[in-house]
UniProtKB/TrEMBL annotation:
It comes from Colius striatus (Speckled mousebird). GO terms for cellular component: Lsm1-7-Pat1 complex; P-body; ribonucleoprotein complex. Keywords: Ribonucleoprotein, RNA-binding. Gene3D superfamilies: 2.30.30.100. SUPFAM superfamilies: Sm-like ribonucleoproteins. GO terms for biological process: deadenylation-dependent decapping of nuclear-transcribed mRNA. PANTHER family: LSM1, U6 SNRNA-ASSOCIATED SM-LIKE PROTEIN LSM1. This is U6 snRNA-associated Sm-like LSm1. One of its GO terms (molecular function) is mRNA binding.
């Protein structure tokens, strides 16, 4: 079954920080649903996470993704230098 959610929020986690982005109404096709649950607000307040602004969490996410890409480039380069084949995700 398809889901129609209202007052939805996208939460982005980076390290011990998080930011919430209000998304409003959200439609989810049934075959894409794996797990759905409600947040327990009492338990959520006990977490050691720090809430930051949307701009700050998006910048933190961008920096984290760049670091992962750089790490992946270094790994691929090291494999090539050793004569090993490098699997490619984009096979176009």
């Amino acid at each position: 079954a398809n889901l129609v959610l209202h007052q939805t929020v996208e939460r982005i986690h980076v390290g011990k920080k998080y930011g919430d982005i209000p998304r409003g109404i959200f439609v989810v096709r049934g075959e894409n649903v794996v797990l759905l649950g409600e947040i327990d607000l009492e338990k959520e307040s006990d977490t050691p996470l720090q809430q930051v602004s949307i701009e700050e969490i998006l910048e933190e996410q961008r920096v984290e993704q760049q670091a992962k890409q750089e790490s992946e480039k270094l790994k691929v380069q090291a494999l090539k230098e050793r004569g090993l084949s490098v699997p490619r995700a984009d096979t176009q």
